[in-house]
Write a structure and sequence with these properties.
- By secondary structure, this protein is mainly α.
- The chain is rod-shaped.
- It has 3 helices and no strands.
- 86% of the residues lie in helices and 0% in strands.
- Helix 1 crosses helix 3.
Length: 99
């Protein structure tokens, strides 16, 4: 039975469409081969998606750190801008008072 299963794996019957295998003449080893190959492919895809997800999480965290740093710089610039604007108003009032 193992030799037959190995033969079906080598012949790559798993590439057949599932509807082609839904016949009473398809041996159970052939169906098992198809299911095993599908499971193996889905496991590979799941593993790849897991790796991509982990990489995406790392990238998101990196982008969050950059965004936080930019936001802090923006806050600092806004404070300096407000201070500069207040100084300009003080200078203008001083100039008016002198005239």
């Amino acid at each position: 039975e193992e030799a037959i299963f190995g033969m079906f794996v080598e012949l790559q019957y798993w590439r057949l469409q599932p509807r082609d295998l839904m016949t009473p003449w398809a041996p159970p080893q052939l169906l098992a081969c198809r299911i095993a190959a599908t499971c193996k492919q889905l496991d590979r895809e799941n593993h790849d998606l897991s790796q991509q997800s982990a990489a995406n999480v790392l990238e998101l965290n990196r982008l969050r750190r950059i965004l936080l740093a930019l936001y802090e710089k923006l806050e600092h610039v806004e404070q300096r801008s407000t201070q500069s604007h207040q100084k300009q108003l003080e200078v203008m009032e001083t100039l008016r008072a002198i005239r």
